[in-house]
């Protein structure tokens, strides 16, 4: 519901330059930036939406982790507490690899101006879209003993055999 209104201020902009977006996908600010009009409304609304969604997410995550930590601390077994903290650490890592490139992309479009080269915007935007779905299985999978054993065996085998090192 918050994304649909992006089309209205973007549609009202005059487009007098080329229609090539310097991005690998069509995001709101990339479209707005090819206009020759004032994109201040677009930038402000985009920033408000990013902060609203990100702020709400962070609030929900904080409340959830507060409740989780209370429950974990009350566990009687040190081994159970360790396992719970380990799972939480993996989840926090997954959150960080999602939000850091996202907020970098959102904020640099609005405040970075021309000081950040377009290729950096493109790389970070692609990382924002591609990293979480590619890294999450690894982050959570490494917790599985069989996967961890296979990865360890593979890495150690590479050290023993110099021909595997490229």
What is the compact description of this entry?
The chain is built from six helices and no strands. It has 166 residues and is mainly alpha-helical. The protein has one domain.
Radius of gyration from CA coordinates: 22 Å
Give the helices and strands as they follow along the chain: HHHHHH
**Largest sheet report:** none
Classification by helices and strands: mainly alpha
Our count of domains comes out at 1
Overall mean confidence score, pLDDT:
81
SSE arrangement:
Blueprint: H1 7-11, H2 28-33, H3 40-73, H4 78-111, H5 118-141, H6 145-160
Helix pairs in contact: 3-4, 4-5
Would you mind describing this structure in some detail?
This is G-protein coupled receptors family 1 profile domain-containing protein. Residues 1-140 form the G-protein coupled receptors family 1 profile domain. It is found in: Membrane. It is a multi-pass membrane protein. This protein has 166 residues and is mainly α. It contains 6 helices and no strands. The chain has helices at residues 7-11, 28-33, 40-73, 78-111, 118-141, 145-160. Helix 3 (40-73) runs antiparallel to helix 4 (78-111) and helix 4 runs antiparallel to helix 5. The chain starts with 6 loop residues before the first helix and ends in a 6-residue tail after the last helix.
């Amino acid at each position: 519901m918050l994304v649909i209104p992006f089309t209205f201020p973007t549609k009202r902009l005059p487009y007098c330059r080329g229609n090539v977006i310097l991005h690998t996908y069509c995001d709101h600010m990339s479209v707005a930036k090819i206009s020759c009009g004032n994109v201040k409304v677009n930038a402000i609304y985009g920033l408000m939406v990013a902060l609203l969604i990100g702020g709400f997410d962070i609030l929900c995550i904080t409340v959830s982790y507060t409740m989780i930590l209370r429950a974990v601390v009350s566990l009687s077994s040190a081994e159970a507490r360790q396992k719970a903290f380990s799972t939480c650490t993996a989840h926090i890592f997954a959150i960080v690899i999602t939000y850091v490139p996202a907020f970098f992309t959102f904020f640099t479009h609005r405040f970075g101006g021309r000081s950040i080269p377009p290729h950096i915007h493109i790389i970070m935007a692609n990382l924002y879209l591609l990293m979480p779905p590619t890294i999450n299985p690894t982050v959570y999978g490494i917790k599985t003993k069989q996967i961890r054993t296979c990865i360890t065996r593979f890495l150690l085998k590479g050290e023993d055999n110099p021909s595997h090192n490229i």
